[in-house]
Amino acid sequence: MASIRVGKGIPVIIDHFAVHWSLSVGLLLCVIVHPGIVEAQTQTEFPLKLPLGLEQDSLVIPEDNPLTEEKVVLGKLLFFDTRLSANETIACASCHKPPLAFTDGQPVSTGIHRQQGGRSAPTAINRVFSTAQFWDGRAATLEAQSVGPFGNPVEHGFANDEALVAAVQAIDGYQPLFERAFGPMPVTVDLIGKAIASFQRTLLSGNSPYDRFSQADEAGAVSEAAQNGFRVFLGKGQCLRCHSGFNFTDERFHNLGVGWEQDDRDLGRYDVTNDPEDRGKFKTPTLREIARTAPYMHDGRFATLRQVIDFYDQGGTPNPHLDIAIKPLNLTEQEKDDLVEFLHTLNGEGWEVEPPATFPK
Ligand code: HEC
Ligand code: HEC
Fold it and tell me: What Rg do the C-alpha atoms of the chain give, in angstroms?
């Protein structure tokens, strides 16, 4: 459904009628009532085309932030702009690099002043299918996630929201882009979050060899070995118990014991809920593009997929909160190799983005 958001400061008659009207009718009204406002006040619905294998029904796009071209354009600039950090060196894209399927290839990320955080940068693809964001799910919306890093002292390093807004306002060229996206209102953290979330919702991964094999009956799309690997994934490996559905995640939190052996262990979900049951739980990540997003796990401890599988094969790291689905698997070497082959068939398309050639001045 096309939806138009109408900013403040335009004739009330349009405000009342156009909001839920289809794009064409809305445009017509604008033209009839006041030809001059068409450019500045109408937003164009962004046509999110889902590659094969992804499910339309599962899109999470909040009603108060419909996807529009104007927001996606703005959000992309904000995502790549290093001027939006305390010393103008760090952008979202510094840690979520397009060629690495929006990860950074490091065990843990390095942010402003070369400081390191304690966790590995997950991919930013297929976020439109998730509610809880981050390894511990502490952001309930992509809008909230999209502004979190700005105030993180080891990421963009802004002291507070005002400092972020001031940095955006200091760049004159952003003002008209915000107006086009949201209408004439002051730049706020909320609007920055809406724009960046909108851009991130366009980063998709589907139409992988696995999708073509399973949904388009392309028998030759994946090898025999990968097909065997898929059987292990479903059966002996029990991977599907958590990496379920078209995005290969149940969107829940589980304890595999990753990092449990450390004294200053990261308790993951527990730090968000304070529920003792949640100790050492982390969000099941998507496995799409997984062959491109090494190293693995929330602390980036495994350099290869083979190491990840060896970890599952041995039954994770025993601890009092270990998930009941994690136990020794007794996989053969062949089954492990085949599982790796299968995971490679989850590399798809829909996330290839060129960084902006120029930025607002
Ligand atoms: C210094 C590196 C760094 C920068 C800069 C950075 N991120 Fe991240 N990002 C990370 C790390 C590390 C995590 C995991 C943190 C966690 O889960 O606690 C993460 C998590 C995420 C996630 C969650 C993905 C998921 O599966 O839950 C998204 C989306 C994301 N970042 C987008 C952004 C955006 C948008 C920006 C810019 C506003 C940004 N990041 C800036 C390193 C970075
Ligand atoms: C009990 C639920 C569960 C089961 C079963 C499970 N996983 Fe996971 N998987 C997770 C969680 C949770 C993480 C993140 C753990 C962490 O970082 O602490 C994860 C992480 C991964 C990663 C790393 C992802 C990344 O982006 O770093 C891969 C690869 C993976 N799993 C593959 C598999 C395979 C293959 C199997 C079957 C052998 C499997 N998983 C079984 C829940 C599960």
Answer: 22
Distance 107 CA to ligand 1 centre (A): 13
Counting ligands in written order, which one lies closest to the CA of residue 321?
Answer: 2
How far apart are the C-alpha atoms of 101 and 210, rounded to whole Å?
18
Over range 300-312, report the average pLDDT.
98
Domains of the chain from N-terminus onward = 1-42 (no CATH), 45-201 (1.10.760.10), 209-344 (1.10.760.10)
Which pLDDT band holds residue 288 (cuts at 50, 70, 90)? very high
- Going from the Cα of 121 to the center of ligand 1, the distance in angstroms, rounded, reads 6
Residue-wise burial string across 102-115, b where 16 or more C-beta atoms lie within 10 A, e elsewhere: bbbbebbbbbbeee
pLDDT, tens digit, 9 for 90 and up, residues 88-130:
999 999 999 999 999 999 999 888 888 888 899 999 999 999 9
Residue-wise pLDDT for 68-81, tens only, equals 999 999 999 999 99
| Residue 30 scores a pLDDT above 70 | no
Q: What pLDDT score was predicted for residue 311?
A: 98
* Phi, psi angle pair for 268, to nearest 5°: 60, -125
Nearest protein CA to atom 6 of ligand 2, as residue: 239
Round the average pLDDT of the chain to a whole number and report it: 89
How far apart CA 30 and CA 55 sit, in angstroms, is 34
How would you class 48 by CB atoms within 10 Å of its CB: exposed for 0-12, middle for 13-18, buried for 19 or more? middle
